[in-house]
Write a structure and sequence with these properties.
Elements: E1 4-5, H1 15-21, H2 31-47, E2 55-61, H3 64-75, E3 82-86, H4 89-100, E4 105-109, H5 118-128, E5 132-136, E6 138-139, E7 144-145, H6 148-158, E8 161-165, E9 182-188, E10 199-205, H7 206-210, H8 223-231, H9 241-257, H10 259-279, E11 296-300, H11 307-316, E12 319-320, E13 322-323, E14 332-336, H12 343-357
Parallel strand pairs: 1-12, 3-4, 3-5, 5-8, 8-9
Antiparallel strand pairs: 2-10, 6-7, 9-10, 11-14, 13-14
Helix pairs in contact: 1-9, 2-9, 5-6, 9-10, 10-12
The chain binds pyridoxal-5'-phosphate.
Residues 8-9, 63-65, 68, 90, 136, 138, 140, 165, 167-168, 188 line the site of pyridoxal-5'-phosphate.
Length: 358
């Protein structure tokens, strides 16, 4: 039986995507590759019905963090000032990237899992002359969905551009693309899009690209270089060809299932079933459902149950769950409902949870 991945990426693949990975050997200097790249790029903007004149997806090889690093290093001008919002591992990672590259940045720190203090954000923004704000949409550390629509409004009022880590929300949650402050989103192929690892992208507002740093801080992470090539059906370096084949198929499946809203509803439905099953056995969620994303929920380990026990019990039955990060490792476990999860899988999962927590 195939293992079902309930960790926040990579996800369990559909048979169609798994077949697509190995469907062809493709040279990236042939017209067949150019057509594939064009097709994937236009399907990516179509997910949120974005105008191709306004938005450009720029594909890169690498993990989600690669896209985030490319976004920050390509779009922050040398005299730019960045404000970072932190309330978990991934927000802290944004600050770390800025520090490594010598980007002038300030952060508003919240405890892991806490909600943003938007009043504080508003006053820091008003006082600070920031050119850019970077934030995480879905903070996967605890499954918290941050209010990026309200952050985008604050950015508009203060003339700052918003750079979003949408790695674990793109294709499953509403993203404020209508806000002129939103300049870019960093995304991976192997979370809510159901592709394979190795491919990521930054969805860029074209006007933001005009402000890209020159000379660039990095060769392989230079979004302007990748964008310029991809716009003329080229690629500067060998791309993740087979990951693109997989994503092309995964995007067909997303569209035929009814698009991101259907995916949102599906994830939410599965997450609710898991939460109800656990609640009946006294397992308490870390955050209220209203504060959580549809993608992942975090739970408190009940007294006397270690994470190792929960993990091993589920793994034996064919399910991979995820520990809490850092100091949360002994208190938390996380279950994501992304990926190709069938009705049969979920029934078996609920039965397994009943056994383990009864
Ligand atoms: C998964 C994830 C990332 C990227 O992780 P990689 O291991 O680099 O793919 C970044 N931000 C968030 C919010 C994530 O959930």
């Amino acid at each position: 039986m195939r293992p079902i991945l309930l960790n926040p990426g990579p996800v369990s693949l559909s048979d169609g995507v798994r077949r697509a990975v190995a469907a062809a050997d493709l040279c990236h200097r042939e017209p067949e590759f150019a057509a594939l790249q064009d097709r994937v790029r236009s399907k990516l903007t179509a997910i949120y019905q974005l105008e191709n004149n306004t938005w450009a997806p720029v594909l890169l090889g690498g993990s989600g963090t690669t896209a985030v690093e490319a976004m920050l290093t390509s779009l922050l001008p040398r005299n730019g000032r960045l404000l970072v919002l932190e309330n978990g591992v991934y927000g802290e990672r944004l600050s770390r990237i800025a520090a490594i590259h010598g980007i002038e940045s300030q952060s508003i720190k919240h405890g892991w899992c806490e909600s943003w203090d938007l009043e504080r954000v508003a006053s820091v923004l008003a006082a600070g002359k920031f050119t850019h704000v970077a934030a995480v949409h879905h903070e996967t550390t605890c499954g918290r969905l941050n209010p990026v629509d309200r952050l985008a409004s604050l950015c508009e009022m203060n003339g700052a551009e918003l750079l979003l880590d949408a790695v674990s929300s793109f294709a499953a949650e509403l993203i404020p693309f209508q806000s002129p402050a939103l300049s870019a989103c960093a995304v991976t192929a192997n979370k809510c899009l159901h592709g394979i690892p190795g491919l990521c992208f930054v969805l860029l507002r074209r006007t933001a690209l005009a402000g890209a740093v020159a000379p660039p801080r990095s060769l392989t992470l230079d979004l302007a270089l990748w964008a310029e090539h991809q716009e003329r059906q080229s690629t500067p370096f060998t791309p993740a060809v087979n990951s693109l084949l997989a994503l092309d198929q995964a995007l067909n499946e997303l569209a035929s299932e009814g698009g991101w809203r259907t995916r949102h509803a599906r994830y939410h439905h599965l997450a609710e079933r898991v939460a109800l099953c656990l609640a009946a056995r006294g397992v308490v969620p870390w955050l209220a459902a209203s504060e959580s994303s549809c993608v992942l929920r975090a739970y408190r380990l009940p007294q006397g149950k270690s994470y190792a026990e929960v993990h091993a019990g589920l793994k034996q039955r064919g399910f991979i769950v995820y520990a809490g990060q850092g100091e949360l490792a002994n208190e938390m476990f996380r279950i994501s409902t992304m990926g190709d999860i069938t009705e049969y899988d979920i029934e078996r999962l609920l039965a397994s949870l009943e056994m383990i927590f009864s």
